[in-house]
Design brief:
about 85% helix, elongated
Length: about 130
């Protein structure tokens, strides 16, 4: 499959995934819990949706598969990206406050998405 098709699919799934993630993070951090655990809860929500959609649609076929190996790889990637993303959001919260952390979270998400695309395309969904 072409890079363009993968990028297009990853962007479409990513937008939907991000909307779910960001909505959960905003709601939880506003009313229920501190920003760091709210961010993790949002990322879990988005990750479950993104793993399935990217495996079934974005990276399907062409020597790629959705299965236990992809799930393990995705989990490792997701943990690393979540630690980086949450540390960035928590750092902004600590130094500039909740409103700044909520506003700048999309930047952390874009950076995470870029790394996630490269890792997904070349490692997570690879059959070999």
């Amino acid at each position: 499959m072409s890079l363009y098709r993968h990028l297009r699919g990853y962007a479409a799934v990513g937008l939907l995934q991000w909307l779910v993630e960001y909505a959960v993070m905003l709601a939880l951090s506003q009313w229920v819990m501190p920003v760091a655990p709210a961010n993790v809860a949002g990322r879990v929500s988005g990750a479950l949706l993104g793993f399935w959609l990217n495996g079934k649609w974005t990276f399907a076929g062409d020597g790629r598969q959705l299965g236990p190996r992809a799930a393990r790889r995705f989990l490792l990637m997701w943990i690393a990206l979540t630690v980086l993303n949450t540390a960035a959001v928590a750092l902004v919260d600590r130094h500039a406050g909740l409103a700044a952390a909520q506003s700048l979270k999309p930047l952390a998400d874009v950076l995470s998405a870029g790394l996630g695309f490269v890792l997904s395309r070349h490692w997570v969904y690879r059959a070999v």
